[in-house]
Amino acid sequence: MNTERKRPPRPEPVDLREVGAPIDGDPQISDRRLFFQLHVFGRCFHPDSIIENIQSQNPLAAVFYDDLNDPAGLGVLLVAENPAALMHYSSVLQQQQDRSYSTTSFRPEMTMIGRTYSSGREPDLEEWLIQKPLKNVLNPDFPWAIWYPLRRKSEFYRLEDSERGRILGEHAMLGRSYAAGGYASDIRLACFGLDTNDNEFVIGLVGAELYPLSRLIQDMRKTEQTTKYIESLGPFFVGKVRQRFVKHS
């Protein structure tokens, strides 16, 4: 009698690379992605001085927003491929605020962070992961922005792949119609395990005017994804660009 125990099968290695649509039969593969982090401050009575101090020490791409819902509010969006760079320059940002402007208050409940990601269907993977999201946030024709996190219900992940694709397709088609009309462009970021409140995605909507961005969110509420499978949305940060800093690592 053979008493030797069967060894458990070795696990398959995990492939963490981003994948795009095949080109001439060959899949697009990339290890690159961008991380975006938004910090929000209140009681910023000298925003231009704060921005000047930050830019003197920050080599990352950055966007500074006036906060629509706080007359003395400032949003600071940092972009980098290396999340450690975000940590470092977020610390520089906090130190500048603490040393120079004791009245300024940091609002940690508004902090949002996410990474660009692929679905496997992108015709140009590098553009989707790096170029397009950066171009959208730095576009001088898009002064308005709405940023918010979201979390889906667990039932969504128990659906068949084809059903999830159908539901997401309805949502995506609506977004593409706004983009085609020049009303809104989006930045879609995943934040699984990165967000303190267990959110799964961060969405940025940018455009020339504020109304279409609000209207797009209103129209999205009618889709099957939102009505049946969204657990939570927000908080929402609404900002108008005060200044952009295009240099990035």
Q: What does this entry show, briefly?
A:
It contains six helices and twelve strands.
Structure report:
This protein is an alpha+beta fold and about 250 residues long. The protein has helices at about 45-55, 85-100, 125-140, 160-180, 210-220, 225-230; strands at about 20-25, 25-30, 35-40, 60-65, 75-80, 105, 110-115, 145-150, 185-190, 200-205, 230-235, 235-245. The strands form two sheets. Strands 3, 4, 5, 6, 7, 8, 9, 10, 11 and 12 form a ten-stranded antiparallel beta sheet that branches. Strands 1-2 form a two-stranded antiparallel sheet. The radius of gyration is 20 Å and the shape is globular.
List the helices and strands and how they pair.
Blueprint: E1 18-23, E2 26-30, E3 35-42, H1 47-57, E4 61-67, E5 74-80, H2 83-100, E6 105-106, E7 112-115, H3 125-138, E8 144-152, H4 161-180, E9 185-190, E10 201-207, H5 210-220, H6 224-229, E11 230-233, E12 237-245
Antiparallel strand pairs: 1-2, 3-5, 3-6, 3-7, 4-5, 4-12, 8-10, 8-11, 8-12, 9-10
Helix pairs in contact: 1-2, 4-5
